[in-house]
Design goal:
mainly alpha, two-stranded antiparallel sheet, 2 helices
Length: 78
């Protein structure tokens, strides 16, 4: 008895499900990290200028990760 080469999860192949869930979960993670940064700024009474620098300083990592995806898609490296 051979296994189905493309098992379905919610009507998607495993690869399609992984791609969609990565994008959805990563977007949720970024939103949660922005919430944490804004909460940190509020609790520390950073003000508008301090909040801006917190978002820039702590958000550079995931901004770079998202930019990497756009650059790969633009160059067709996927």
């Amino acid at each position: 008895m051979a296994l189905d080469p493309a098992p379905l999860i919610f009507g998607l192949t495993v690869a399609e499900f992984e791609e969609v869930s990565l994008k959805v979960c990563f977007a949720g993670l970024i939103a949660y990290m922005v919430f944490i940064i804004l909460n940190l700024a509020k609790e520390s009474k950073a003000g508008k200028y301090g909040t801006m620098w917190l978002l820039i300083g702590l958000g550079v990592g995931f901004i770079g990760f998202v930019a990497k995806g756009f650059i790969q898609r633009l160059l067709g490296i996927e």
